[in-house]
């Protein structure tokens, strides 16, 4: 089998990192690969705990950064020094089902021109975590958010069959190092969110589409690091990231359309939260303070982007 390495970026992952490593320890050792933890300057001792538990294993490697580089820059730095042909870039808040690593590595051989290959993601309760997405242009976002159009959105495609897609949620991304290097890796200006979207967009433009492999299954706790860093306002970072994506790859007028659509969405949420206090209590996004902050994120650089 082609030499592979599993890479995970860790930042204060004491609650999730041990489970992730444990789920991959046996197959990584059996298949002759290596598992690399790139620690983004954790402060909770998760890096030390991993070293104490796995440091004597030949297949385990810990790399420490003296600063939190974020996901994109951290991954770029780690991948640069990896000698393996195939890289399995997995979030620290994932747990692999038995056999899933082998299925993903086999898929790389079956899809030699793929850019990113990803598994079926599951919530901790075992239910489907929809991970297939359209590229975030305004028209596609309309499909995703409007109830009468939602069935046409990629997020609602069948997650039961192998298929080529626009992009996959990047909890687990398998790729050939050669393809990643030719694309110059992630755009490190994306500190958190949509760095995988932007990379997959560029890969698709160069003929390397993303491929979804549902027979490989991975539990994804989602947002373990983001919740620590951004708290309940994490989704505001999605707005920043989408604007950054459109600033780089959008067509003329796409940023204005995005702002108008997302601005209307915030106003609708305020009204819904006012009419339904229970909804407002359950979901912070339906409160007036959140919507004000979202509108500020949407329009604070409007003059610069015109």
Folded structure, characterized:
This protein is of the alpha/beta class and 306 residues long. The protein has two domains: 4-226, Spore Coat Polysaccharide Biosynthesis Protein SpsA, Chain A (Alpha-Beta Complex), CATH 3.90.550.10; 251-305. The chain has 13 helices and twelve strands. It has helices at residues 17-31, 46-54, 70-80, 100-110, 138-145, 177-182, 195-205, 224-230, 234-249, 254-275, 277-282, 288-299, 302-305, and strands spanning 4-10, 34-39, 60-64, 86-90, 94-96, 117-122, 128-129, 132-133, 163-165, 167-168, 172-176, 210-220. The longest helix is centred in the C-terminal third of the chain and has 22 residues, at 254-275. The model has no long low-confidence stretch (mean pLDDT 92).
List the helices and strands and how they pair.
Blueprint: E1 4-10, H1 17-31, E2 34-39, H2 46-54, E3 60-64, H3 70-80, E4 86-90, E5 94-96, H4 100-110, E6 117-122, E7 128-129, E8 132-133, H5 138-145, E9 163-165, E10 167-168, E11 172-176, H6 177-182, H7 195-205, E12 210-220, H8 224-230, H9 234-249, H10 254-275, H11 277-282, H12 288-299, H13 302-305
Parallel strand pairs: 1-2, 1-4, 2-3, 6-12
Antiparallel strand pairs: 4-11, 5-12, 6-7, 8-10, 9-12
